[in-house]
Amino acid sequence: MTSGDAFSPLRSVLARAGIRYAVGGSWASTAYETLACFLDNLPNTFYVDPAEARTAIRLGRPFNMIYMPLAFKFDFFPARAFPLGMEELDRAIVLSGSGLSEGPAPFVTPEDILLAKLFWFQAGGESSEVQWRDIQGIVRYRGGALDHAYLQQGAGKLGLRTLRDKAVGTA
After folding, report:
1. Which pLDDT does position 96 carry in this prediction?
2. Which tens digits make up the pLDDT trace of 150-164?
3. C-alpha span between 29 and 7 (Å, rounded)
4. Per residue in 104-137, pLDDT tens?
5. 13 versus 158: which is more confidently predicted?
6. DSSP reduced 3-state for 47
7. Fewer CB in 10 Å around end: N or C, the chain?
8. Residue from 83, 96, 77 nearest 33 by CA
9. Closest by Cα among 77, 83, 87, 81 to 150
10. What single string gives the DSSP state of each residue in 77-142?
């Protein structure tokens, strides 16, 4: 079994429910606040606490679900959980052959992943070594290909210009 075996049924449920999503971070699925409508239609191969998920969606907070046959965890971030969440969805790019899915799936752009990681890194008191390592990895491996004008604009909206400059300067 592969990660695609976990993602494929989830993607089918999301599609049937008409839910717009984009995969981000470490294959995290990003979704917006209307996600609750599909909770009652999940196959029993997924574990999620429906009350917790509905509360998280209502409050714009992340939650997760587990594909039980593989113990594969999916993290959901309602778009309003992040100030640029709707932009992430609008800018998502469709990738095939990602290792997550046999078919094409929308993925959050590297720039939006970087901005989100900077945002959560700052929100967590700038103490997560894992977040900082991820940030540096994105800059190091995608640096020249990144849309730096968009990063500057997004960092400005989030109040992260100094942190963005630090990340770009230390990778």
Report:
1. 80
2. 999 999 999 999 999
3. 9
4. 888 888 899 999 999 989 999 999 998 899 899 9
5. 158
6. strand
7. N
8. 77
9. 87
10. E-GGGSTTHHHHHHH-EEESS-SS-SS-EEE--HHHHHHHHHHHHHHTTS--HHHHHHHHHHHHHH
- Do the bridges between strand 28-31 and strand 21-24 make them parallel or antiparallel, or are there none, so unpaired? antiparallel
Report the candidate in 81, 116, 127, 99 with the shortest Cα–Cα distance to residue 4: 99
C-alpha torsion sign, points 161, 165, 168, 171: negative
The token duo for 111 is: 């720039």
Q: Which of 94, 85, 84, 46 is nearest to 66 (CA)?
A: 46
Question: 49 — phi, psi (to 5°)?
Answer: -85, 105
Mean pLDDT across 89-103:
81
Angle at 118 between CA 114 and CA 121, to 5 degrees: 135
Report the distance separating Cα 159 and Cα 56, nearest Å. Answer: 25
